[in-house]
Amino acid sequence: MLGSDPERTSRASCESAERPTITGVSNVEAEPAELTCTSTPGGVEVLGPRDVPLGGPRAMSVRRTLPQKQRSLIGAWCFCDHYGPDEVRMDVAPHPHTGLQTVSWLFTGEIEHRDSLGVHAFVRPGELNLMTGGRGIAHSEVSTASSTVLHGVQLWLALPDAHRDAPRNFQHYAPPTVTVDGASVRVFLGSLAGSTSPVPTFTPLLGAEITLPAGATIELEVAREFEHGVLLDTGDVTVEGTTLTAGDLGYTGTGRATLTLSTRDGARVVLLGGEPFGEEIVMWWNFVGRTHDEIVAYRDEWQAETDRFGRVEGYGGTRLPAPPLPGGRLRPRGNPA
Ligand code: MN
To answer: How many Cβ atoms are within 10 Å of 48's Cβ, its own excluded?
Structure first.
């Protein structure tokens, strides 16, 4: 999904009396609200979620943990929205992306994807759908008729400078479930617990869903050069001695050979990792670039319907216009030193 004008989404009509319609996710805030952030030296930095309301008068909110003031990226992961379970419809009209890859990972529900590469696919629980919108792509996302509850995460990966004009691409992968000390692990990007995703990435990365049964403690071997984030979906989890609340993203810096997770009552988490990105990026609406002027040019091209983004066939409606640019110049963001 993603990224739409808050004014537009607030005007969006609610097509179902039972279930509000999500028409986009906003990431246009110029000054995100301060969040509670606790940090222990050498320990785990708890990145709490910010509730971001979506479209429709009674629409749900998503819980956004990336980007935020304290941290813009974990590896190349630059956007993390966690949503549901909610009884909602999703209907995100064709919108553009540049300089990034999107990862849709569902726990519950089904979403129909169409893009300007010509891909028509269904996003289902436990299956990776990785879309590359380097130079430019457009896509639409609509929940299917049978999908009454949506629960999942929407993640973006920033492309490194050398590859940020990569051509359009779409990869699907349904990872096997491997077991570690009673926990179930699905590795959708990178390698963990002896399972390796065949999907190539532009920077060294890790993405996995881990389900821990009640009372479990697991020790995962991880790459020392990676930083990691543990997003707690449901249940309770303690990461390296720090207990998270549902919706939190627990950040660990580089230099760890293992990550220890434990739970009292059981938990489902998404583990994200990667080598520190090392580049500053400019994120606005659905674009990732490097400068204000570049973002302005992307916006102009979307509005002018140039070939950069192409056309989405088969969506029953009009494309999303770009929101107005903010008054000031967009500033690059990286991580604290
Ligand atoms: Mn999108």
So the answer is: 17
How far does the centroid of ligand 1 lie from the alpha carbon of residue 113, in Å?
10
The alpha carbon torsion through 69, 75, 293, 55 (nearest 10 deg) reads -60
State in Å: Cα 103 to ligand 1 middle. Answer: 9
Q: Which domains does the chain have, with CATH numbers?
A: 21-274 (2.60.120.10)
Cβ-defined contacts of 241-248 (< 8 Å, 24+): 241/43, 241/44, 242/40, 242/43, 242/44, 242/46, 244/46, 245/48, 247/48, 247/49, 247/63, 247/65, 247/82, 248/46, 248/47, 248/48, 248/49, 248/65
Whether pTM exceeds 0.85: yes
Ligand 1 centre to CA of 140 (Å) is 7
Q: Give the pairing type, strands 89-97 and 21-22.
A: parallel
Between CA 190 and CA 62, with CA 217 as vertex, the angle to 5 degrees is: 60
Confidence tier at 23 by pLDDT (50, 70, 90): low
Q: How far is the CA of 95 from the centre of ligand 1 (A)?
A: 6
The three-class DSSP label of residue 277 is coil
Q: What is the pLDDT of residue 43?
A: 85
Please give the distance, rounded to the nearest whole angstrom, from the Cα atom of residue 102 to the centre of ligand 1: 7
